[in-house]
Amino acid sequence: MQAAAGDAPFKRAPQRIRAEVASVDLAGRRTVLVLPVTFMNESGSAVAPLARYYKVPTEGIVLVHDDIDLPFGKLRFHHGRGTGGHNGVASVVRSLGSPALWRLKVGVGRPPGRMDPADFVLRRFYDRERPDVDLLVAEAADVLRTFGSAGGDAARQRAGEAAGRLGIGPPEPA
Fold first, then answer.
1. Is 107 within the bounds of a domain?
2. Looking at the domain assignment, is residue 52 inside a domain?
3. What distance in Å separates the CA atoms of residue 4 and residue 114, rounded to the nearest whole number?
4. Tens of pLDDT along 82-124?
């Protein structure tokens, strides 16, 4: 994979764990970013072994994922709730044995018409959506930085205010 987190490239995870990792400084703290290379529904098979390897308690994990029940452009940051029917989140919670982790939900909105939700979340963004997606990703990164420097309550507030700050909303139909 050619992805990078700032200046840190993602590399193969240790011990044959099916993920790529990048070690970065986030608000003065060493932070490991993880990209599972499993099917989304099997993300827990990468997250849990890496949490054990790096000795990260469940409360120190932030899971970033899409959410079709949030409007496009909205971020929500919370701790210890249910999976909301998201199979990838369910896999991580099951593998960790606890829902006591932080989650940053990135709103992608509902699929149009009768489109299958799985097809909707796996499709590439349209060119006209890219500028808003880039803003949303940058804002999500700022929420994570806020979590690292000021904690969960501050990150929750920043996420809640993001949509107004960004001035983006649902993409217009094609």
1. yes
2. yes
3. 35
4. 898 899 999 999 999 999 999 999 999 999 999 999 899 889 9
Report d(CA 57, CA 54) in Å as an integer: 9
Q: Is residue 43 a contact partner of residue 59, using CB atoms and an 8 Å limit? A: no
Asked if residue 105 is part of any domain, the answer here is: yes
Among residues 152, 133, 134, 135, which one has the least CA distance to residue 143? 152
- With tokens 């590399």, the residue in question is 11
User: Closest by alpha carbon to 139, among 171, 164, 121?
Assistant: 164
Range of the domain at 158: 4-166
Residue 81 φ/ψ, nearest 5 degrees: -100, 180
- Match 């489109």 to its residue by tokens: 115
Look up the pTM and report it. 0.88
Q: Which of 105, 21, 103, 5 is nearest to 62 (CA)?
A: 103
Q: Distance between CA 45 and CA 95 in Å, rounded?
A: 7
CATH of the domain at 92: 3.40.50.1470
Angle between helices 44-53 and 87-96 (to 10 degrees): 40
Q: Residue 34 falls within a domain, yes or no?
A: yes
Overall number of domains in the chain: 1
Give the pLDDT mean for 43-69.
Answer: 95
